[in-house]
């Protein structure tokens, strides 16, 4: 053998020997050590519905390790928590857990996993600190026994631990509506809403402002929706007043309106209470109709057009004025008439001076008319347009039916009568 081939031969022998010298590892006296903490805030207000994220951490250590060429290495380590299941409990607390226990699989030593629970805090929850028990169930490798050079028998044990989670209920203001009434709240108008509010919470509200807001797509829209309250103590009641408008598309029925209070809490932070929803009845729309029959006017003449209007709505109107829009073949120099105040169901007659073109067509026309009025809040409103039905005819007959001729004849008769009266008096 040549000496220069010796290093190559030694390397080959080393490669053949290495697999036979592999070392086995076995850990002794290790076990999982689990703890739980809440991710984020642990402070919640009464009535809140929230998610609580819980971090489960495993700080378990393997304190003894054996290495040997004859040892078999187990698949699991003693400090690994296997098949972990967690469930949040709420016994004897104002918390309601809506999420079932969750499976988190394995948590190795030095690792963590997160479980999220949906939780509802009772409206009546008293401020203070509470403990929510987190029940954790897992399995771990307690021991691995070797049988021969190629068999391991695993000895797993199941354990259940209860880990406390500290949560805090903060004081807050809660609004309860004790009384509500409305005034002049009709479709298409503005009205007032009066409420008596009570602080049924546990926090003293400073610089409190009561406010009403639109509830979803409700036709009730606040136009003056804030009322300053000031200091609002627990158990205290206050009376507030708001102005609300009703959309023209509403119907005479009840609609929702939200009320809440913005205030400075016990920490000096500006917060808003949870909204309380009330229902408000809305009266029918203010409306009018023409109830007079078809009026007959004559071509080429000036006439008085009498129109009877009725308040067919659900509220009284004030200082009502009727107006017509005269178009060809009509003209008018007196197209407005005062109707006064009209309660629901009442009628009033308007008189308009109308000229009719002699070249017009004999048929029935519809003259546009509307009413301007003031509502209970003294807002100026205009009604929907109505049609005043007018029939045009051409007056038939001899000269004796002509109004001018009749007036002249009457004048002659009066003059003749006066002359006879004076003459007879002189004869006496």
UniProtKB/TrEMBL annotation:
Residues 170-263 form the CARDB domain. Gene3D superfamilies: Immunoglobulins (2.60.40.10). The chain crosses the membrane at residues 404-423. It comes from the Archaea. It holds the Pfam family CARDB. The keyword Acetylation does not apply. Keywords: Membrane, Transmembrane, Transmembrane helix. Signal peptide: none annotated. InterPro entries: CARDB (IPR011635), Ig-like_fold (IPR013783). This is S-layer protein. It comes from Methanoculleus sediminis. The lineage of its organism: Archaea, Methanobacteriati, Methanobacteriota, Stenosarchaea group, Methanomicrobia.
């Amino acid at each position: 053998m040549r000496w220069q081939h010796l290093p190559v031969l030694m390397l080959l022998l080393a490669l053949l020997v290495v697999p036979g010298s592999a070392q086995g590892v076995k850990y002794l006296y290790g076990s999982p050590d689990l703890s739980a903490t809440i991710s984020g805030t642990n402070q919640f207000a009464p009535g809140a519905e929230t998610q609580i994220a819980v971090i489960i951490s495993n700080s378990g250590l393997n304190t003894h390790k054996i290495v040997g060429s004859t040892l078999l290495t187990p698949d699991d380590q003693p400090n690994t928590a296997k098949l972990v299941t967690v469930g949040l409990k709420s016994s004897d607390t104002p918390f309601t857990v809506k999420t079932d226990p969750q499976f988190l699989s394995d948590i190795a030593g030095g690792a963590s996993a997160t479980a999220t629970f949906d939780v509802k805090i009772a409206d009546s929850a008293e401020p203070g600190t509470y403990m929510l028990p987190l029940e954790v169930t897992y399995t771990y490798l307690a021991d691995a026994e070797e049988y021969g050079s190629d068999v391991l028998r695993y000895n797993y044990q199941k354990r259940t631990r209860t880990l406390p989670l500290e949560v805090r209920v903060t004081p807050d203001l809660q609004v309860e509506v004790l009384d509500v009434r409305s005034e002049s709240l009709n479709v298409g108008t503005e009205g007032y809403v009066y409420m008596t509010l009570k602080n049924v919470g546990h926090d003293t509200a400073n610089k409190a402002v009561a406010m009403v807001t639109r509830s979803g797509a409700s036709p009730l829209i606040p136009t003056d929706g804030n009322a300053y309250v000031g200091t609002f103590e627990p158990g205290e009641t206050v009376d507030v007043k708001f102005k609300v408008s009703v959309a023209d598309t509403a119907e005479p029925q009840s609609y929702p309106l939200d009320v809440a209070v913005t205030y400075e809490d016990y920490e000096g932070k500006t917060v808003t209470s949870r909204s309380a929803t009330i229902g408000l009845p809305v009266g029918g729309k203010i409306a009018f109709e023409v109830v007079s029959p078809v009026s007959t006017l004559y071509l080429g003449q000036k006439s008085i057009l009498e129109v009877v209007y009725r308040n067919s709505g659900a509220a009284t109107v004030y200082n009502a004025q009727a107006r017509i829009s005269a178009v060809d073949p009509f003209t008018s120099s007196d197209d407005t008439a005062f109707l006064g105040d009209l309660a629901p169901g009442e009628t009033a007659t308007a008189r308009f001076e109308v000229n009719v073109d002699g070249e017009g067509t004999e048929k029935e026309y519809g003259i546009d008319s509307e009413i301007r009025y003031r509502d209970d809040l003294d807002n100026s409103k205009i009604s929907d347009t109505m049609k005043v039905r007018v029939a045009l005819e051409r007056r038939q007959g001899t000269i004796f039916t002509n109004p001018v001729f009749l007036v002249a004849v009457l004048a002659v008769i009066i003059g003749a009568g006066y002359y006879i009266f004076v003459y007879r008096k002189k004869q006496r």
